[in-house]
Input
Amino acid sequence: MEKTVNQKAWFLVLPVVLLVAFSAVIPLMTVVNYSVQDTFGNNEFFWAGFEWFDELLQSDRFHEALWRQFLFSGIILALEIPLGICIALAMPRQGWTVPLCLVTMSLPLLIPWNAVGTIWQVFGRGDIGLMGHTLGNLGIDFNYTNDPLDAWIIIVIMDVWHWTSLVVLLCYAGLRSIPDAFYQAARIDGAGRWAVFRYIQLPKMHRVLLIAVLLRFMDSFMIYTEPFVVTGGGPGNSTTFLSIDLVKMAIGQFDLGPAAAMSLVYFLIILLLSWIFYTVMTNAGQDRKARAAALEARA
Output
């Protein structure tokens, strides 16, 4: 007997599809149109073909901004993922302190991005900022407006403060989903703290870690508001990431064609790297499950 499939459910999805088409697909097509044309104002366009893409891929300015973006995202992932796991492991599992810790962890995520940049811009100043003034009293010359290293330090610290909470909450949710039977079996076998983390907690957190890595990579690779408010891309171009460079090109210089080409390349880079992250981590999780199943079968 054939099973009847009700296709009426698609009508519930149709409004979402139309909304996405209006808010994403149509603007994307507009960007594609700008990327192959040139304009001198008055709504007059001239065919340019792939000229802007060739110019972009040969541009030292683009390569330098891309390198800074990769460096920033690599530093952020290397700091926030392990730090988030450690904090999640240290959080209580029961009692009145659980909601207190969860609320405390959620507070940085509720602050608007431009407000975060303003907070750390003031916080790092040597005259009125607590961080800058304290470092000055300790004899440390900290000036993020003139020293590129100091600018990088304050931007990295700001992002770690703002977004590590997201990793913590995801990892904590993964830890709470582990049944107590796993821990009881580990205690019976005499497993130590490291063994419990390696063979029980880390594998069970694999999916939430995948989500955390993808979210933090995409967010860090597209970061704009916070570093722009704090440093404006300076000193010089030391903190001019791809997003800041794109806005300067599109709005500051009004080079719509090159800016459209750059935004498409930017989008493709994020899409490709996110797919690579997802594929690698998914395959690693499947290999881990296969090894675990093989061990169980031998036992």
Notes: The mean pLDDT is 85. DSSP finds 13 helices and two strands in the chain. The longest strand covers residues 37-39.
